[in-house]
Amino acid sequence: MQRLYADLAYSPTVGSYWETTARPLSWPELAGDRTAETVIIGGGYTGLNCALQLVESGGDPQSIVILEAEQPGYGASGRNGGFCCLGGAKLPVKAQLSKFGEKETVRNFNEQLAAIETVRSNLSRYAIEVDRHSEGEVQLAHRHSDVADLENEQRQLASLFATSSELISKDRLAAAGLNSPEFHGALCNPNGFAVNPMKYVAGLVEAADKAGIKGFGNSPALRIERSGERYKISTPSGSVSATNLVIATNGYSSEDLPTWLAGRLLPVLTNIIVTRPLSKQELADQGWTSFQMCYDTRNSLHYFRLMPSINGEGPRMMFGMRGGTQSSVAMNEAMKRRIRGNFDRFFPAWTHVETPFFWSGLVCLTRNLTSYTGPVPEMKNTFASLAYHGNGVAMGSHCGRLLGKMISREIAAEDIPAILRQQPQKFPFPSLRTTYLKAIYHWYEWRDG
Question: Do 146 and 211 touch, CB atoms closer than 8 A?
């Protein structure tokens, strides 16, 4: 497998807080040769939702096979921050309007709303308990000058997308339970909610198992071959022959499976810490009592949320940030110190609070700054959905459903917004992608002040 980072970035041993709360069912390793109608590479939100949609569209579950390199939820689906919210692209709305026009920009926004509803529907349909909380999300201005940007965004949400939101001035943040010396105001968007991502993926795996879908773990796809009207996907101990092929590997993709992917994706490291349970007094001391999911206005953003109490424990704070351009023990330690330093600056009353959990994962970006869902060029009956730009809980789930509907011919690729249909452009000199990333981070730090 050809990947951008060292093996440590793809290690199945993560040490996350989520792993202490839930574990998906383990899938057996593929042994021997099988035939199927559809083979899906990737056992995360996208692959699982695609498989479930195929069955719910009338497909034979025995004709669907999912291949996972490790175990389901091992990648971003089990490591992320659990924000089910708007997003999926890094391309600013202004640029979307310029390139695609108002109609397609609004269609894309409405698809994001539909993605949130897809997750909500999954939780209800499969009775998945995910410690859900937060009514929408809060964007916090880290500079006074960013308040004007929040005001502009509020006007845009209302005029272009018919969405009401609420501005909170700096002097009202404490009363809203959002007290921190770091922020100068906030914009509250009512769309979305927070989940335990591991409990969500575990529930999807259980639903797929009950539906009769065949999933195989520790079965990385090593080779894709075309023979007549079928694909043969080889793993270390077996193979699957299928008519339809789905690539649902996101930031954990191999550059050569298929070769079309080479140089088109930019996996970016992101890091998370989680505190020990916090007491009522500690919450009061800081004045942070809101359970809304939050992120700041930095380009290199921080994302965080106070999580509800579980099993009688006090609530914990989850705190994440982008950063790091290589995967190594030394870099992980450096990022751990950096994220803890930022945490202490955001929440000075909690400098004594231990953060026993730290882990990293990969967010997937494209040069276009948009995700892609649709057919793979020059590969008949091959589909892919990738690059959710840090918003894979909702968009990964929803786009998996869209792929299932495309394969079942309920919809055509042209039926989804044009922004989702832009094939990822290759990066120039792809071997230098992490070098580009270093330059981007330096520029972001300068822009963020």
Answer: no
